[in-house]
Design goal:
5 copies of one chain form a homopentamer. With 358 residues, chain A is an alpha+beta fold. Chain A has 10 helices and 7 strands. The radius of gyration of chain A is 34 Å and the shape is rod-shaped. At the B-C interface, α5, α6 and α8 of B face α1, α4, α7, α8 and α9 of C.
């Protein structure tokens, strides 16, 4: 297996690196040295959580009569993941999709479990966007979640299970999956919000005094939309598959929750498209404003040149050193020429006024 | 529920605020402090209306043998809405869609009621567009309507029910729904009309004397189209679901009414697309006119410069102070130079004439 | 019914007016003061025509065993139309579609009749396009046609029925419908032909000497395409419904005739799209030609300026009045300077030649 | 029938003439005065060909037990075509499609024969494209082909039938149809090849020294693509119908041959689209190269002007005739000014160097 | 068969040559003089490989009870290929698709074998892209592969079969097909990676100092995308057919492997589209930067001209030689004029500052 897979993955990895450029960082911050595994086993009556234990011990504690959420933070410990795969009978292609952090969002319905992979944003600021690769395996009474990096987005849900408020402990692991996916989709909104703020501030700048920097900002945002689209568009299809629920992995009563998430993804895509349209409107506006200023510059150049070049010519005439230039000897020659120049000046100004140049 | 929902809603709200920018106002005007609830219960024989009563009392008066229209103005009194939900067995996700004023138009067919949400414009002028979020729940012999703001668009229909003219009291609540939706879709036409007037006036300006302001106006209208499209396009799908009527919430005899509304929505979308095409034609026209004017400016600059610079050079020659410049001493040197200058001038003019520059 | 419908229609009417602008005229010419009704009742053996009779009398003469073509010119006499509706059991929504001259082309299959509405061009020249709204109701042995304005496009078919040549009297009213629709679709070709002539003449102008007027002409034609598309595109769907003939309103033997009309509509749409592509090619050509001319202007400006400004500078040097300027006293100083100037001139020319500027 | 059909055809003809412009020639060359009819009757054992005989005689010789290929060159002899129609029971709408040389490619499956019409290119050079309208009627053991103009593209197949090499005589008329259609589709490739050569030569010109002529060439090719698309796109649908072969006109063993032709049409369309994309790339390249040259021109103008205008001003100062100008009397005033001028000159050059202008 | 096929192929070949231009090289390097044929026959227990033997001998050694992989390098020996075709009952149209190196990727499901053809890149650098045409025929227990050129991409898989590690020898020839196709799709990623590096380096250049060369580079990459799209887009459809596996050529257990390849192709297309969007963003950036620099140039020109032309005019005034010019005789006339010039200069500078020109 080494040959083809090995070579592809390295190529694929580089492709993605190029595609995301400085956009996706080298994961210095969030990448885990160690893979952390945590089990939350619950039913309506009780809940217990286990962490920092050997993987085999945790796997043994999965009681198929209770609901088990096994959360794995970090994808570096291949051995641990292989053991989980053996326990839950996961195909090695599925494991590869879990490990491949560049994989696109998708839902696969397999024989006795459902596989869902998507991206989560956990940092988005002026400097960079950082997202991580998250995969879920939903089976009967168990939910496995694999996170690329350690994150705290699920901590709210963890607390909720512990405290037993809400209906989360009454329902199955499919409802838990909904809660987790819902939390992830929420994270997209804050990204969109950031972009919204950027768009707004650029738009204000452009309408006042557009600079090259604004244009570069617009281009940067357009690039961000290109990346976001890559992440959000396939998500629609993936969630839709959950809503259709052809193989019954989702309880019928919970279908409407995924339909709700689907609505949100549609809304996201729609907002993304709207922003994209807005940026193209902004680019038109920018271009036109720049153009307009340029025209003003050209007009000024033309006015000054057109007025003074003929005047200078007249002055040039009477600067000639011919012996016989009768005008030069006239008593009021000088004043006459000044008068003529004044007349030309006024005519020119009148002409430009008539043309509404200023 | 607080964590994920709360955070999303605030993010979502901000996103929408950005998207609509100054476009959608902060609802100072129409937002209700108090939620007003009103019940109109009618059948072919009689009608009674109740308002300003405690919600429980009103809900008790809903006689399932009569047709009941329960209209709620304002979405701030969560408690009241929860009671209505309990009475009519509405799912909490549905309630959230009613409360979420940024939700996109959609139709959902549930077990024993049909849910429809859409937007209504109630103000559209030079300064701002204001729309409100309206939701309907249609069940057997009852229709619930939830309005974000107090409005008078339904007052005509209310009067009609009271006076018992038309067929409105003879038919079921599905027909009432049609009448309300029809009134809302009508409100879109007046928005379109306003935009039509704006487009027309801009087009006239551009063909006469295009200014930057016209361009900004075009951009503003294009932005308005982007927003309108967001509201109207999903409406098509929503109404279409009503026309298809797969679960029989609409009486078969009333299907054609919704088909009629559907026709109007198609017409709206079509008009919107046509206007959009027109604005892009206008932008081309604007750009070209600006370009044309610029070319005129450049031509003038070129003509003046090209004529006078060589003439000035000639004058410059004879302004030199060399001791031995025979021409300067010639009797008619001055007149000769003037003649040469005149010749150059005429040749230049002839050249430009030949090139059809003016 | 007055409230919602009334207000919509006025809004809708204004929208359409804006959309069509000066394009669609105010119908001074063709609008009928009086609604004219005419009955042609025929079978294979005989034919009789009645006109200028009270509507009730005409309706009584409709013999359901013969084939009846009832043609109504003018849509102003609501009373007459209501009587026809009563006689043929037409729903009031259908009547509204007949009356609404802005309605888009569509086919509706109802319980016992088929409804088809479309537009017909009857005038298209330099100044304006005029089309009218035509609706057909096809039932068993009867065909109702409602024309917005009096026209003579159907007179050929009327004559044909009278003279009993062709197969028109042998076949049912569905065949008559085909003949009428076919005549209308023919009218589109002459519009397309007019536009074709305009496109051709503009293209010739542009390749010779493009002016702003040509550009405005292109824009005008593009606007015309936008309007035509609105009329022709939905027609495809409407005719297609006739071809599919799911409810059997068309005799199977006549289906191929409608398929033929459908082919023509497809050809129309295709020609429209081709013309549209051509106009965008023309715009590119126009823009480029204008651009090219501008470049020529700029080159001339640059050549003249670049040659004479250095020369003038040299002349300026020796126009200075310093006491101690040895060159001025040189015997051949003047001729030397002239030689230098000549050399600069020739070098400049050579440079521009080398750069292939002229 | 005369009225509507007559008027349409003339309009339709003019439309097509405009659309194809100088593109499609007036058919002086290939149009036949006389309609030539030729019968090739063959089976596995024998073949006989008849030409230049009266149509009725030829039709009588069609032996329904043999395979008959009746080829008609020229569409002017309506009488002859009507007789063929009578013999083979062709509907008059089908005859009209055969006669209408502007009809778009399509396949129609009728009761007992299949109708296929398409275009064939027989001349394509610098000056013009000439294509002809060809129609086929495939029935049991007979194939009718109607060519607008006399051509020799089928002569190879004719020879092949005569000489009985290949499998052509062993198979039915559906295989013959395949061979003819295949030969026609081949003719498209040579057109594409010509365009390919043009595109290549223009691309070379542009990268060297783009002129307006190159741009006009690109526009011409883009127009040619618009026309080609009109001919090739509907062909895909037409051939696809043959491949699907729903009514069994094609022998199942021969279906794969048509699938092969279909592959070629797809390849044609794909190549067409690729060329189209290439031309738009070329236009961008052209525009940019022109733009770049313009910028060079403007830079030169700016450099010369910016250097010499200040210098001339200095010279102008000391050309003034004030009585009291102390510098003028200085011993080294002249040299000082020259030095200052030299310093300005060097600074300006250094500035432009710094700005990397040359 | 010679006539039509011969002429088409030559035309088709030329078309493809134009399309790929200097892009696809004339295959000097990789084209084989000799066709090499190699048989790998294996089952779970044993494997033997045969090479450099006469084709008939090899074909005799194909044991239908073992799994046989027959790999043909080079497509020039038509005779050998015909013998293989006879042995495995391949239709001559299929053989033509194998031989036609310009054929587009596709999957055909035939009676007792499956045919798949696609392209493989084996060289892609600054100078050229080289891809080869590869076809597979998958039947019961045999897999035929036809390569246009000798390559070593399959050598890893060959070794793997020999060494019997992995599951490759346990599974059928359909799994072998997956491994080969997977290796080919991998080759696309390295091409994409190269392009990614180019895009990145151009983007850096543009943001610093855009030159015409950068623009030409962008255009070159855009052309490469056009070619890549031609190769990759139809591959999606071809692989999808394998995944659907309607006729059961693929073992059900192996379907998921092809689904995995399909995922990769989707990812490729998606990356291609993203890159395409990026290049258009880059073009906008390039254009704008160029434009911005041009504006700077024009501003400089305008500033210099606007400041010095009026000043020169003033100097010109006092350079006139009129006898009676009182200012000339004033004691401080010269200083006064210098003062006025200074004032004009400062005012102009202040104006430009106010206008924020520098």
């Amino acid at each position: 297996m080494k040959f083809s897979k090995g070579s592809r993955k390295s190529a694929l990895h580089k492709v993605t690196e190029h595609l995301t450029g400085e956009f996706r960082t080298k994961q210095e911050t969030g990448t885990l040295e160690k893979t952390i595994i945590e089990l939350i086993s619950y039913n309506e009556e009780s809940v217990f959580m286990e962490e920092n234990k050997p993987v085999d011990e945790l796997l043994d504690q999965c009681d198929r009569k209770r609901k088990n959420w096994l959360n794995v933070d970090g994808l570096t410990d291949r051995n641990m993941i292989d053991r989980i795969a053996a326990k839950f009978d996961l195909h090695h292609l599925l494991i590869e999709d879990i490990m491949n952090v560049d994989h696109q969002p998708k839902t696969d319905e397999l024989d006795d479990h459902l596989f869902l992979t998507l991206k989560m944003f956990y940092r988005f600021d002026e400097e960079k966007i950082d997202y991580e690769h998250i995969s879920f395996v939903l089976g009967k009474n168990y939910l496995l979640s694999f996170q690329e990096k350690e994150g705290d987005i699920f901590s709210g849900i963890r607390t909720r299970i512990k405290q037993d408020n809400g209906i989360i402990r009454k329902r199955g692991t499919d409802y838990l999956l909904y809660r987790l996916v819902d939390a992830i989709v929420d994270s997209y909104y804050s990204v969109l919000e950031k972009i919204g703020e950027q768009v707004e501030s650029i738009e204000e700048n452009i309408s006042k005094n557009p600079t090259v920097k604004d244009f570069q900002q617009i281009q940067k945002i357009r690039k961000e939309f290109i990346y976001l689209r890559r992440v959000v568009y396939p998500l629609r299809e993936a969630i839709n598959k959950l809503v259709k629920n052809e193989n019954g992995f989702i309880d019928e009563n919970n279908e409407k929750y995924f339909a709700d998430v689907y609505d949100h993804v549609i809304h996201l895509i729609d907002s993304l498209d709207t922003y994209k349209d807005l940026t193209s409107t902004m680019m038109d506006l920018y271009m036109n404003t720049i153009n307009y200023k340029m025209n003003e510059v050209m007009k000024l150049l033309t006015i000054i040149t057109t007025i003074f070049i003929p005047l200078s010519f007249v002055a040039g005439i009477y600067g000639m050193n011919f012996k016989h230039m009768p005008e030069l000897a006239w008593e009021n020659g000088y004043y006459g020429v000044l008068a003529i120049m004044g007349a030309i000046f006024i005519m020119m100004i009148a002409y430009f006024r008539y043309k509404k140049w200023f």
